[in-house]
Design goal:
single chain, alpha+beta, 5 helices, 24% helix
């Protein structure tokens, strides 16, 4: 494992923004984690509920110069598999990855990930990987439909820093060895990867089975009529 810099702060609006504006130099991984985010967010306009000092809200700055811009979904695969592996030690076999990179326990959401990358020509330059992981929170009061925490699953508190360090170690190892193994493991952990399940797109609700996630991140489904359907993020949703 390479060296990495770990910064712990009490509060910020967004750890992604904090890292983006910190002008950190060097090529090592830099991780900032906050006890509280005042404006933590998911993708788009989604907010992320997190009680102060109870969960993991953090961002990782990495420099994956070897990855082509059209393969940047590898970053999503690496961080989601690292988190699924790390929390699987606590929550058991019911952990899965809901495309593109939400971490689920059964049908409930444990973790959300937001990735922001900059390019240098045809290659990635820098990526900031933002993570919100429900760890020790015992109750959720927002209108999020299906949150769950490790505390609710296991009945015990988890050492947040030990868990964070485990995730970073696994992510760093995945970055160093990106390839077929990471892609295969990601696909094997996908949520609802067997059988027909309800989805909704612009044309309405339908039943389909998951065929694949392509290297660029597109989701491939096969509907009941045997037709393949291909979707980018936000073009289709799972019906819970």
């Amino acid at each position: 494992m390479s060296n990495y810099r770990l910064i712990h702060i009490d509060e910020t609006d967004s750890t992604n923004r904090w890292l983006r504006e910190a002008a950190i130099e060097g090529e090592e991984l830099t991780v900032v984690w906050a006890d509280y985010q005042t404006a933590g967010r998911g993708c788009g306009t989604n907010a992320w509920e997190s009680e102060r000092g109870q969960n993991l809200t953090f961002s990782i700055l990495c420099h994956p110069h070897q990855i082509p811009a059209n393969r940047q979904f590898l970053i999503s695969m690496a961080i989601s598999t690292a988190i699924a592996d790390a929390i699987g030690r606590y929550a058991g076999e019911d952990i899965s990855i809901k495309w593109p990179n939400d971490i689920y326990w059964r049908d409930r959401k444990l973790c959300g990930i937001l990735i922001e990358c900059t390019l240098s020509g045809q290659l990635l330059k820098d990526c900031i990987v933002g993570v919100g992981l429900n760890v020790n929170q015992q109750a959720f009061v927002s209108d999020a439909p299906n949150p769950v925490s490790l505390r609710q699953i296991t009945g015990q508190d988890t050492d947040r820093e030990l868990l964070l360090r485990d995730i970073v170690r696994r992510f760093d190892a995945d970055l160093a060895a990106l390839g077929i193994q990471t892609e295969h493991y990601y696909r094997s952990r996908l949520y609802r990867h067997e059988g027909f399940w309800p989805y909704r797109d612009a044309g309405g609700q339908f039943l389909a089975e998951l065929v694949d996630v392509e290297n660029d991140g597109h989701l491939l489904l096969r509907d009941e009529q045997g037709c393949l359907r291909r979707y980018a993020f936000k073009e289709v949703s799972f019906k819970l």
